[in-house]
Amino acid sequence: MNFNFGMDMNITKPLLTKSELLKLVGIPESTFNNWFIRGFIPLKELGCVKVSFTSYKYSHLTAAYCAALSYHSGRKRSKYIEVLKSVFGGIAKEGSFPEGLTIAISSMGKGQDCGAFENYGEALRYGGNMSLYVNVGKLIKGAAEHQKLFKQQCNQK
Length: 157
Known about the structure:
Elements: E1 2-4, E2 14-16, H1 18-25, H2 29-38, E3 49-50, E4 56-59, H3 60-69, H4 78-94, E5 96-98, E6 102-105, H5 106-109, E7 114-117, H6 120-127, E8 132-135, H7 136-156
Helix pairs in contact: 1-3, 3-4, 3-7
């Protein structure tokens, strides 16, 4: 089953400030700044815009991306970042994704080997029991639901 964003909801629309993004994702500012400086977050592809010299507005898709990025706990995350950029870039362009979209990371989330799969069952078949499984579909769906609530809250003000 594919999850498709409706015409009224564009998950790449920049609505969040940095503090709102960090609160939503639950990561420290130092971690986010490290990822930002190292270029781990593809801002343009995820719909972020520069508001001033020092600040950006972030999309809900960026929040889901950062949440997914936080699952890799090892040092060898270059392959994982490639997979994330590919998956999230495709979602930003197409506006749809498999609801069960799962990424498997070897060595319980610390390894370099990883891959994206349409569902958890397929990921488990290839990853085995020594991998960490990130349900990216659920993260993105949660971000889309938060965006809907966020917009409603903004319209009530």
